[in-house]
Amino acid sequence: MAAIHALCFKQPRPWSAQEFSELLESDAVFLCAATQGFALGRIAGPEVELLTLAVAPKYRRQGIAQKLMDNFLGQAKAKGARDIFLEVAENNVGAIALYQLFNFSHAGFRKNYYANPTGTRISALVMNRQI
To answer: Quick check: is 114 catalytic?
Structure first.
């Protein structure tokens, strides 16, 4: 997962193998995996957060992200979630379009939310939807 994440994210920074390992130790965290991609979520009562979604760049535009989102929504519903939220870098146009395709809407804004290795910061959009 860390290798795919590193291919997908430079800003904000990619997560390390240790970070993924630590997240997956939690009973609240669940993984949706596909060839060359994955989605990771965390459930807390009636809410689920999409922590990250990544598809290796050379496998994009093949419907993998849509299949991951379908799987993610199904798992979230099966786990009893009623609301889903996520943060996305405001300049990640492709991800925002994907989330809008799945009926996520703008719910908030987090100024300078993501830190980059260069020291610059990127704001995040908070998006949500009900299941």
So the answer is: no
Catalytic residue among 25, 47, 99, 113: 99
For residue 99, indicate whether it is catalytic.
Answer: yes
pLDDT of 14 above 90 = no
Catalytic choice (87, 90, 113, 114): 87
pTM of the model: 0.91
Contacts of 80 (CB under 8 A, 6+ apart): 43, 46
- With a pLDDT cut of 70, the percent of the chain lying above it is 100
Cβ-count burial of 30 within 10 angstroms (0-12 exposed, 13-18 middle, 19+ buried)? buried
